[in-house]
Specification:
The protein is an alpha/beta fold. It has eight helices and ten strands. Belongs to the glucosamine/galactosamine-6-phosphate isomerase family. NagB subfamily.
């Protein structure tokens, strides 16, 4: 696992956009995450599209997850959210932005269909990830199988609380989501996890330096052959080996 520590959220976004730009220019398949953490990265990619001609026209995209029971058109569906935050501002074709079908009442079939769609596209080349305060990635809450595939999950109460700000209150937050599993995420060729703020420091330390455990789903990144974790100083504040990570980053081989 490569850990890159940057001074602040703006520098994290710049670093992440630098990594993603190479994949975009090659027309690769992107795994997109919603939430507040990747938004500065998306803003930087939009800027590069508008000001530097960065084209997404040859790319495909797959979302990590979707609320079960919300249609795509709902303002808080993750499909609508990613359109607001990124895809409607760049030149990726709408037909190439894919998400789990939250309206399919047969949630098992919905999961299987999404797995097949990712496979048919040749897999995800780079998957953007955030991490929850309880260590979840996607909506793989603590206790999720490390080899799980796209399926329905019940949200952890802490996640409901965290997401209430996007709805009218906790009572309006859906209790179920369709999410890529940890095994699905692991099949992406490059995992790019972003974390900013002191509130994420415990989760970052657990996923990077703690034991591999279903209690911290993000720790599954320890098994991946190409995982990059980009964090700001605040999110890195509980890493025991932070000085080494800084040293290794500054002394990469040419």
């Amino acid at each position: 696992m490569e850990i890159l520590i940057r001074p602040d959220a703006a520098a994290v976004a710049q670093q992440a956009a630098d990594i993603l730009e190479d994949y975009v220019r090659a027309g690769k398949t992107l795994g997109l995450a919603t939430g507040s953490t990747p938004n500065p990265t998306y803003q930087e990619l939009i800027r590069r599209h508008r000001e530097a001609g960065l084209s997404f026209a040859e790319c495909k995209a797959f979302l990590l997850d979707e609320y079960w029971g919300l249609p795509r058109e709902h303002e808080q569906s993750y499909y609508s959210t990613i359109r607001r935050e990124l895809t409607s501002h760049i030149d990726i074709p709408d037909a190439e932005v894919h998400s789990p079908d939250g309206t399919n009442t047969d949630y098992r079939a919905a999961g299987e269909d999404y797995e097949q769609a990712i496979t048919n596209a040749g897999g995800v080349d780079v998957q953007i990830l955030g991490v929850g305060t309880n260590g979840h990635i996607g909506f793989n809450e603590p206790g999720s199988s490390l080899s799980s595939v796209t399926r329905i999950k019940t949200l952890h109460p802490q996640t409901v609380t965290d997401n209430a700000r996007f709805f009218g209150g906790e009572e309006d937050v859906p209790r179920h989501v369709l999410t890529q599993g940890l095994g699905t995420i692991q099949r992406a060729r490059h995992l790019l996890l972003l974390a900013t703020g002191e509130g994420k420091a415990g989760a970052v330390a657990a996923l990077a330096e703690g034991p591999l455990s279903a209690f911290c789903p993000g720790s599954v990144l320890q098994l991946h052959q190409h995982a990059t974790v980009v964090v700001d100083d605040a999110a890195a504040s509980k890493l025991r080996n932070s000085e080494y990570y800084r040293f290794a980053d500054a002394n990469k081989p040419a």
